[in-house]
Design a protein that fits this description.
By secondary structure, the protein is mostly helical. Helices cover 70% and strands 0% of the residues. The chain is elongated and about 60 Å long.
Length: 183
């Protein structure tokens, strides 16, 4: 993992976000020091920052890093490792993104799925990106599949075989779509 690249990306993100200056300094300190949980808590305490409040800003920073990483509609191994690393550094727990930034997560996933389903085929690389998105946002299979269902229905309406779309519909759901004339 390229520490300088992470630092420059985070610096760019910090400058574009409207977060307090002391939080920018704390983000920089955490990234530079790569501390453990206790050291991170100590840095926050020394600066008079509540860890719950800090997490709100940390989530914004990581979410923006994810957006930057997905600008090319890909997620490289290095970008994925960096996201996982930042989540660990900033003590982001499973469910934090979904709980605090549900609409942002939904928008990011919807944008990526719109691109994936545009050609009515989910390639192996795109299927792997779906798994990566599921992992970085700590979503369950069912949560990701619900996003897939929303986007895949357009392709199904065009007569595309569901097997090409990397989505799971129960027999009941699929039959209901057919009965209602949605596919």
């Amino acid at each position: 993992m390229n520490k300088e690249k992470i630092q420059s990306s985070i610096f760019e993100i910090q400058n574009s976000l409207h977060i307090p200056e002391n939080m920018k300094n704390i983000c920089a300190a955490i990234i530079n020091e790569n501390p453990g949980k206790k050291t991170t808590e100590m840095i926050l305490k020394e600066n008079g920052i509540n860890s719950s409040m800090a997490k709100v800003y940390f989530l914004q920073v990581v979410l923006n890093y994810i957006k930057i990483s997905l600008q090319d509609d890909l997620l490289s191994d290095e970008e994925k490792s960096t996201i996982i690393h930042l989540k660990r550094l900033f003590q982001i727990s499973p469910g934090d993104f979904f709980h605090h930034h549900n609409l942002d997560v939904e928008q990011i996933i919807s944008n990526q799925f719109s691109i994936m389903y545009k050609d009515n085929l989910v390639s192996n690389e795109e299927a792997l990106l779906k798994v990566d998105l599921q992992e970085i946002f700590d979503l369950s299979f069912d949560q990701m599949n619900e996003y897939s269902k929303k986007e895949s229905i357009t392709s199904l309406k065009q007569g595309i075989d569901v097997k090409k779309l990397d989505v799971f519909f129960s027999n009941e759901e699929y039959s209901k779509l057919k009965r209602e004339g949605n596919i």
